[in-house]
Structures are given as C-alpha cells and as structure tokens.
Amino acid sequence: MADQGGSNHGIARTSRTRTEEQRQKDLERIKDYRDLEDQVRAHAAKNDFSADVFALTSKLLRLNPEYYTVWNVRRRCLISGLLSKPSPGSSPSKASPTSSPTATTTTSSAECSSSLSTETPPAPECPTTGKSGTTAETEADKEDEEQKKQQNKEQDQQNDQQILQKELHFTIPLLLESPKCYWIWSYRLWILKQVIERLSVPVARKIWEEELGLTSKMLLRDQRNFHAWGYRRHVVEQLESPALEGKSLVESEFEFTTKKIEQNLSNFSAWHSRSKLIPRLLDERNADDEARKAFFEEELNKIGEAINVGPDDQSLWYYHQFLMLNLVSFVGHPTITPAFTQEERVTYLQREIEGIQELLEDYDDAKLIYEALFDYTLYLCQLQERKPNEQEEEDLKSWLAQLKKLDPMRSGRWADLERDLGLRVVEEA
Amino acid sequence: MAMGSIADTLWDVVICGTGLQQSLLALSLSRSGKNILHIDPNDYYGGAEAAFSLQEAESWVDRLATEDKGLFRSASITKPDVTGLSFPRAYSLALAPQLIHARSELLSQLVSSRAYRQVEFLAVGSFYIFKAPLGPDQQPSLVRIPSTREDVFSTTAISAKAKRGLMKFLKFVLDYHSPEQRDAWKPFADKPLVDFLQEHFKMDAELKTYIITLTLSLDGRISTEDGLAIIQRHLTSMGHFGPGFAALYPKWGGISEIAQVACRAGAVGGAVYMLDTGIKSMATAADEIELELSSGDKVKTKLLVRGDEKVGDGPSISRLVAVVGSSLKSLFESTIEGAPTPCVAVVALPAGSLTVSGEATTSPVYVFAHSSGTGECPNGQSVLYLTTMATSNAREVLNSALGSFLSAMEQDQAPQCLYQLYYEQAAGVKQSRLDELTLDLPGPSLSLSMDDSMLKHVREAWQKVVGETVDDAEYMVFTDREPVDDDDYE
C-alpha cells in the first residue's frame, strides 16, 4: 500500500500500482468508464432518472466516487421515484395534521399525474381517477380511507427505510477506499437527513446512533482524520436535537476524547474537541466553583503528565496554552474557572512556570519548552499589569538565546520579539 | 525427485535433523530442483525445537535417562495428585517457546518465501515485573512494563522524573546507530548494559529492571551492545503488525510449527522425508559421502548437513514447563482498542525478588505464560514456561518462582499445577563447521527471543548447495505456487 506521506499522517491510502502488462487492461477500463459516463449524462440530460439510470450511477460511482455530478443524478433518481412521495402537508416524524384526510379526486389525480410524468416505477398507490364519481362519502368510507392512508404511510416508510439503509451500505466500501472524499460524506449526510424527514423517530434515532458508531470506527482506523472528527460533531449535534428526541451527549463525547488521547497523545483533533466540549460539560454538570476548580486542576495534571513524556509535541502545548488562557484571558467568553480571584490566577500561572522549568532538567533542548516559558512569563506580567522585573528579563533573554540556537529558521521571529520587548540578547560564542 | 530407491540417487544434499535451522534450509531449497533427502532419527519433527504431547514428553524423558552427553539433561516429569489433566494429545508442550519480534529477519524470510501462510501467528502481549509482597500479610503483584510513550503516560507506578529518564532512554535507543549516540555507548559496548544505564542515564534500580527485562537477559548482565540491539528491535517492532504488540508466537507449539511448515514446503518441492532414520556410519570419498542409514539403506550425497549436538561454551538453562488449571485471563487482556487478544504474556521475577533456601536469587526467572489460545493446552488451562540460569539449586528456584507467580494471580484460590516437566539445556556450539563434505550447523539457541544471527548459517549452507553462481538476492524469495486472494485490510 502506498504511503501518501504527510497529508495522511502515514496512514496508507490504497492505490493501484501499474505494470506495463496492466496498461492495456487500463485502456480498456478507461473506455468502459467513458461509455458509462456518457450513458449517465445522456439520461440525465433527458431528465430520465429511472431505476436503470440509478443502476448506472452505482457502477460509475464505484469507479469514481469523486464525480459529484453523478451523486446528484443518484439523488434525483431517489427523489423522483425510488423513494416515496411525501403526502401533501404531512411528514411521518411530525404529528400528522388533521388537514384533508379525505382524498378528493382532484388531489389524488394531481399526485398520480406528477408521478406519471417522470416515467418511474411504482408510484405510491393512488385511488384510480376513474372511480365512481360519488361526491358524498359515508363515515365508514372515511375510516377506510384513513386506514388505507395509514397503511400506505407505513408501507412507504418501510420501503424508504430499506432504500435509505441500502444507500448507506452502498457508501461504506467507497468510504473505506477513500475515507476523505467530501462527496461520499456529503451524500451520506443527505441520506441521513432523508432518514430524519421520512422515518419514525425511533427508527431514525437508531440509524443515527449507528452512524456515531461508524465515526468511532473511522477514527480507530485513522485517529487524525479531520473529516471524521467534524463529521462526528455533526452526528452528535443531530442526535442531541429535538428532531431525534435527543439529549446531551457531552459526557460520553468528553470520555471519547479521553480514550483517543490515551491511545495516542499526539491526537491534536482529540485535544481540540476536548477543549470545545468543556464549557458545555461544566454547564450541564451545574458545576459550582469548587467543582470547576477541581476540574481545572485535573486537566492541568493530565496535560502535565502528557507534556512530561512528550515535550516536543505541539498538540500538547496548544492544549496547555488553552488552559493558561483560561486564567489570563477571561473577559467576554466562557471559561472553566470564572470565579478565580486575581491571586488564584497568579498562583496557578506561577506554579505552571515553575513546573515547566523543572522539565528543563531533563529536556534541555526542547524548543517548545522555552517558547512556553517565554509566553507564560509575559502572560504573568500581563495579568499583573506590569513590566518584567530584572530576574524575569534575564530569564527571557536566556530563553530567547536558546530559541535562537534551537530554531534558527525562525530567527526573524526571535529578532522581532527581542526588539519589541527591548531585550538585547548576548549571543554565546 | 528421483524415482526408484533412495540408493540410486546421488543426492545433492542429505539433511539430518528437522530442527529449526535444518528445516529452514529445506525451505530455502524447496524451489531449487535439487535432490534432497531429509532424515531425522526421531519419530517426530522439530528436533531440539519440537513440541510434545504428554505421551511424547514421557518418551523423550525416558530416552534422555539412558543418554548421557546430549544438550538436554536431568529431565523429569511430576504429576501432582490432583484431577484436571486432560488426555495426552490435548497438549503440545514446546521445547522452544521463543517469541519472535515483529521486525525479526526470520519473519521477513517467512513472508518472502510465502511459508508464513501456513503458520497462524498470535500476539505476544504485555511484559510484567513480579513485585514481592510488601509485608507479611500482603500479596505479591505484577506491574506492567511500559514500552510506548502512551504506556509511560498512563502508568502510575513511576515518578514524573523517572518517566522523563525513561523517555530519554527510549528516544536514545531508537536512534542508537547514529554517530552521536554511538559515541556515548561505544565505550560500554562489551560492558553490562546496567552499567551504561547507571553511568549515562543515572537510572534508578526499578527502571534498570524494566529495561533489562525487555532484553530477556538470562543473567541480567547482557552487554550494552547486545542489549541496545534487542531493545531497539522491541521498540521498533511495537505496532509493526498491529497495535498493542511487539512480538509474535506461532500457534500449536511455537518454533516447532515453523520447522514443520518449512519441512512441508521442502516435501512439496520434491525433497524425500524419512523420520525415525539416523546415520549409522559414513565414509567420505573424493567428492561424495556414502552414508549407511539406520534403516539399512546406503545413500550417496555431495553434501551432508547436520545440526551440531555438542555442548558448547556458555551457561546452561533450567526450564520448568507447568500446566496449570486456570485460564489466567487477567494476563491476556489486550490493553488497546483494536488490538488482537494476546496469547502469550511475559512475567519476569528479577534477581533478588525471590528468596530460596534463605538466599535471595542472583539471576532473573522468566515466566512465559501461554493461554489455551496457543493450542498448547485445553480451554480453561494455561501452560507456563519458566526459565532461569542453570545453577545447583535452579530446580528449587523455579519451583519457588512458580509458587510466587501463582499467588500473584489474585484469585480466590491460587491456580493448581496439574503437570510439570523439568529439564536442563546446555548451550550449543555457536559457529558452523565445515569438514570436507560435512557441514554442521550451530546448536540450538538458548535465547528467549528469536535470535536472527542463526539465519546467516542457514544462508551459507544454502549457498553451498546451490553453488556460488546463484545470486543470493533470490534467497528465500518465492512466489505462491497457487494464486492466493490477498486480503489487504484487517
């Protein structure tokens, strides 16, 4: 399997390697592909979205899932005929309105004629227009109509469910081969939207929960697939929404980031997700100041342990900085510990600076440590609304000297910092 | 392959013995079209690396009692007076329970030769250190050895400072071939690794124990050069074939399974196999040897390859193979999502962690625990392979280790031992020896992890048979005999 290098974090993306022998075969395949493409486009141009065209899109998309126009053709095939027509003014997931239970001939014929015009297979059952033109219907007749409508609706739902689940199934092998193809994910989302609109809430909910399971599997395969993370957030949002009678999943999602981090500390997406979940997590826990303080300390410990074994890992330092900003930049947005006094903030910041300095005992060439010390010392000054004192200036200069040595590529940046802060660093020979 | 009696053919090579090395030689020659006669005086495959049913173990022990000077001695079987032991063929006790690191050369050769398809490989899971009880009423415990960054992050058994030391060492080892690192360890190359860890990393006793255990050093005094090589192999093997494990173990009896698969490949390639057949006498002529086999047949060959059975220089080991009536499930849990369930766990009882006859032990005891998933025992039981340096009281040391290990397993009752096989194995000769037309391959290795250095001797033997003109880039590189459907995904 070919390694696509940086863009895939070393996770192999499948690719076919060709020998000369295979070249002829490929030329044939290209011809077949072109034929297929021409057929689909011809049908679409004629507004033909029949079951045959649908089958053609299956073939074509298996060969090229990135062909987004063909995904659209497929969508149209589904809407035009394979999926049931939603009856006017009602949707299965909402409470059925009492509007027009009786089928007057005009409405039904309108339904039928619209389905006929697209030349598709089984349109939902409609009462034949040629039925006896009785103008007044009895109560018994009305009940029969109701029952039939209900049966039709259920049948439609079952039919739709089958089709939609088949569609989800169809995309899976395509996703396995191209896990970062936008169009496949987008199609899945469209199908899942149809699931909400067309199927009953319990059924829809179950399908969406399976979707959550799918994102977990995708993230097991490639922990840093950012599509999968974004997608997961969207799935969680839907599961929490009223449309699926949802409740908050913030605790389990937080736990999920913990698990991912334990599997691989360098998981930037997991740490990032974690930081995004925290405000809501604490709100939902109705965390008081004590609880918030305890939570903050736990997070500090966790990231401290991580940095202790991975001082060169940028994602860890980003998370640490997120926690520090919680202390320093707390005006105008939710923070973990809004009730901290100035004194508490200063104490924590100082403690962190000291703790990080200890790391230098063993990791004296980790540039991110020096950067953190530099930044946090300035944070401290900012917090206390003062300029760096003499000792701090010495420290800043010495750290900057280390940074110049360890990271000569960014010499411009170090020079800027030097100038902006009025530090003049004496270079060691 | 020659038709007619074996006496009519001038064999290109007669291979005597079906131990690992001779079997790999047969595998390497399986597409060469050479006339190969492969014999073994035993009535089973595997030689010194065989796996035994209980019946075969008993026969083996009986036979050793009559012999005096082989590599194996002092063998005995003990069956405690308890119920639970299953029928003899339900067991496959391995004489060579070595684990094979994922990055080992042997595995690459098994893959390139396609022989790997016949072997079912199982994951070797965690390595543990046995911790003696802290007080008179306390139980002993097992501590997992962290060998990845995430392991070190999660463990609560090490201080923050010690963790930093460990991380620095792991980083050092991964890169130990680079000039900067070489300058640091070269002066210590032949000195014990523990000394280097002390001098260069100021490591405390506990961390040193972790590191030495990863090397599976039998005397705890492995040299710096050898030790760093093994640890690097362990670290780079971690995750190589899947998350959560660094080494593999063949199902159904370890190395014996590889020997059998290799011989099978030899047979498919046309080699003639005769078990229960040894060499009664031999006479060397100008460019051929005439052998009289124990079957009475007289055969002529251009080259004779045997395994050297003389005792060589180096320490012997004592081994206790114990069947216990418990699945020891807690040892075989996979710690990572998506990782295969391991069937082998390694527990080290470091020097000093046991007191035997009033004295603390001076060398480690290694316990290789095998679940029934290895096929070596029935469900609900496990096989333990305990190894230590052979000393005058090694037997007692192993018994004591077994007792302590079982009491550390945290069960309501300590698991019962159902069967014990004890023996001592001497170090073999380490070099090949070519004497006119007879090539003696080195003796079996006592190392607890597969030692790739033995492979070069097999390769040299192969070159001798196929001749100098054959390019050794073809060595062990075959295509499948029949088209196979390769599954690229897990």
UniProtKB/TrEMBL annotation, chain A:
Secretion signal, residue range per the UniProt entry: none
Record keyword Repeat present: yes
Catalytic activity: geranylgeranyl diphosphate + L-cysteinyl-[protein] = S-geranylgeranyl-L-cysteinyl-[protein] + diphosphate
A single GO molecular function term of this UniProt record: Rab geranylgeranyltransferase activity
Ranges where the record places region Disordered: 1-26, 83-160
EC number, UniProt record: 2.5.1.60
Keyword Chaperone assigned: no
Coiled coil: none
Entry's Gene Ontology BP terms: prenylation
Keywords: Prenyltransferase, Repeat, Transferase
InterPro entries: Prenyl_trans_a (IPR002088)
Compositionally biased tracts (Low complexity): 83-120
A GO-annotated cellular component: Rab-protein geranylgeranyltransferase complex
Compositionally biased tracts (Basic and acidic residues): 17-26, 145-156
Entries under Pfam families matching the protein: PPTA
PANTHER family in alphabetical order: GERANYLGERANYL TRANSFERASE TYPE-2 SUBUNIT ALPHA, PROTEIN FARNESYLTRANSFERASE ALPHA SUBUNIT/RAB GERANYLGERANYL TRANSFERASE ALPHA SUBUNIT
Function description: Catalyzes the transfer of a geranyl-geranyl moiety from geranyl-geranyl pyrophosphate to cysteines occuring in specific C-terminal amino acid sequences.
Family from the record: Belongs to the protein prenyltransferase subunit alpha family.
Protein name per Swiss-Prot or TrEMBL: Geranylgeranyl transferase type-2 subunit alpha
Organism: Sordaria brevicollis
TrEMBL record, chain B:
GO biological process, one term: vesicle-mediated transport
A family per Pfam: GDI
GO MF terms, alphabetically ordered: GDP-dissociation inhibitor activity
InterPro entries on file: FAD/NAD-bd_sf, GDP_dissociation_inhibitor, Mrs6
Domain of life per record: Eukaryota
GO cellular component terms listed in the entry, alphabetical order: cytosol; nucleus; Rab-protein geranylgeranyltransferase complex
SUPFAM superfamilies, sorted: FAD-linked reductases, C-terminal domain, FAD/NAD(P)-binding domain
Family from the record: Belongs to the Rab GDI family.
Record-given protein name: Rab proteins geranylgeranyltransferase
Species: Sordaria brevicollis
